[in-house]
Every structure is written in structure tokens, then in C-alpha cells.
Amino acid sequence: MKILHTGDWHLGHVLYGYDRTEEQQQMLRQMVDIVGVEQPDVFLLCGDVYHTSQPSASVQTMFNHALVQMHHASPHTTIIVTAGNHDSATKHEIFRTPWQQLGVYMIGTLSADKPDTHIIEIPGKGYVVAFPYMHERVMRSGIVDDVLHKVSERNADALPVVLSLHTALSGSDFAGHDDSDEKTIGGIDTIDVNDIATDYDYLALGHIHHAQFVHTGRHNVRYAGSPLSVSFDECYEHSVSVVEISRHGARPEVRTIAISNPHPLTTLPIQGFAAWDEVLRQLVDFPADLQCYIRLNVEVADHLPADARQLAQQAVEGKQCRFCYINATRANTVTQRQTQQLTVQEFQQLPPIEVARMFAHDTGAVFDEQMELMFNQTLQALNDTTD
Ligand SMILES: [Mn+2]
């Protein structure tokens, strides 16, 4: 069985206010071409089709169009698309029945009472057990094990079995997901690979954007990664994985095909941080004809000049590149740290914005006007939901 494994497309993602439709269309065209060339038995997209649960009509049209093209590029290919934590589970399944006529399986919600929904048999080739994103608690409840067990009962010919999940596995390299630690990655609690049964030949994962085998000692647990960077910290190659498995129990053969982006996400300076004057000079000298997004890594002694954003905007005027933001860090963060000691009562009386400012000060982060605006918007949204 030959599988094209991908995930985390995040269609509709907007980068610092810039529309990315052109890049996303380019990525989709590359995917369609790869499917045409590779003629896989299965095309597997492991969640996060869209960046938000409310993608615009044009973004949905773009995706649906690409699926139909993919089907025409390789009519025998079974296409399986699961919903990730960014997708709306129920909307994902609205057109499940018509899609199935084209050999496209949309798996959006967990059907614990209908386990067959999650078993897709590719006659004579193998089985794909496909689950959408589900809460870690649900995943540990044994549902995955039950479905895998059903497959092994049916799999008399020892055909390959692929399991697909959208989750955060502990032990993964989560570079690029800046809100992560050992316990959560990208807002999802990590689970241990040993919390679920292992009677599969390949575990196809979505959620983490860096393509990788997860260190489990088995060499068959893999994130395909996103085909397009969602953040500046995803500074690694983006690709799709081609997986071939000869029979149940065999080790999968995996190779990758790079996906190129006509508008790469670029950071100045290329390595580390530099002083504002130096970074601005690099931006002024930046070639006018290079299409890319730009982030500036600036080391500040105290604070950035008040007109820094404006100067950066002026520096790129008339150029093809798009200025996104200034990522500022404080020089000698550790020596400047002065934690204010507050009593619990004092702390409770502080407005949230003050707490955030203190946190930024203590950790050396820069809490600029834009951050304050975002903070206040988030606070407002939180207040709106609790009302
Ligand atoms: Mn994702």
C-alpha cells in the first residue's frame, strides 16, 4: 500500500494581516501534481484542513476544487481527510455522502457507536483507521484500541494497517509551536504513544508542523508536518511524506517530497538578534525584487524607538517583500530582572493589563502597543464568553 501522508494545511491562514491565497493555491497545485505522479493508493490529510473553524466561502471552494482535481489526477486513489483541532468537526462532514461518490472520506466527528465509520478498507491493499482530533481523555478511553482490534479480526490476508490521529505525542520535536512545553503542544495535552494499542504498521500523525519520526523505538510513528509555514519559527523544510508498506508487520519505507513556497517567511538578521540600527539597515538594503514575508529580530537595551514600525514600513515601500513584525528581545534579560514582590491582596487588585506588563518586564519580553491591543481584545473576548 502506498500512502501520501500530509496534514496541517491551515488554509485561510492570514499572516500578520496579509492574505496568503496565492501561496496556498501554489501549494495545492503542487499537491495535485504529486498525486498525479505518485498515483498513491491513499491520500491522507491528517487534520487542520483550515486555519479556523469558520473558513470563508472562497477558501472552502479552493479546497474542494483541489480535492476534485486530485481525484481526476489519480481516480483510483482513496482520499481521506480528517478534522483537526482547528477545524469544525460537524461542518467537516456536511458533504460526506456526495464526497464518498468520488472516493473521498470526510472524517469529522468521533462515532464511538459506529466504529466502522473509522475503518476504510482499500480492497486488496490494506486498511486505514482514521480518527479526527479528539480529546486526550477520549483517546485514552480505549476507542482506538477497539477499532484496531476489529481490523485485525478482519485482516486475514495480513494487509498493511495505517492508523491516523491528530494529536500531540510526547517526545515530539515541537519547534515552531511557540506555545509549547512538555505537557501541551499547540493547545493540546500530550499523550504517550504507549497509551494506545500498537497493532498498526504506520501511525500517520497531524498537529505538529515539523515533519519527523517520533522517537518511540519503532520507526513507524510520524508527523508529515505542514506543507506551508504557519509561523516564522517553522524555519525547516516543508514536505509531503510518501509511505510504502508491503504487508502487515513490515517496516514502512518513507521518503519526502519538498513543497516550495513562492513567498518564504524570512527573518532578519538570518541568525540570532541584532541592534535596531543594524536590523533597519539590513531591511533598507534588502533586495527589492524578493517576494517574502519579513520578521525583524531586534535586541533592545531598553525599548524600541517609538516609530520603529513606521520606519520598517517605509524601508520596504516599493519592494516585493512584506514587513510583518518586530520580534524584540531585551539585552541582558537576566541581569535586568527585578521581580516585584506583591502580596496576594495587592495582586488581586491589579488590572490584568498591569499583570501582563509586569510579566513582560520580568521575562524580558517587549509588550508594545500592538501586544497591548491584542491583550485587550483577548480579554474582551474572554469576558464576552463568560458573560
Ligand atoms: Mn496544525
Q: Could you say what the CATH architecture of the largest domain is?
A: 4-Layer Sandwich
CATH homologous superfamily descriptor of the largest domain:
Metallo-dependent phosphatases
Strand segment count: 19
* Structural class computed from helices and strand pairing: alpha/beta
What is the alpha-carbon Rg in Å? 23 Å
Distance between the termini: 52 Å
Unreliable stretches, pLDDT < 50, 5 or more residues? 334-339
- What order do the SSEs take from the amino end to the carboxyl end, as H and E? EHEHEHEEEHHEEEEEEEEEEEHEHEHHHH
Q: Assess the beta-strand content as a share of residues.
A: 15-25%
Enumerate the distinct ligands. manganese (II) ion
Strand order of the largest sheet: 4-3-2-1-14-15
Broad CATH class of the largest domain: Alpha Beta
The level of helicity is 25-40%
Shape: globular
Mean pLDDT: 91
Largest sheet: 6 strands, mixed
Could you say how many structural domains there are in total? 2
User: From the structure provided, what is the oligomeric state, counting identical versus distinct chains?
Assistant: single chain
CATH topology of the largest domain: Purple Acid Phosphatase, chain A, domain 2
Helix count, per DSSP?
11
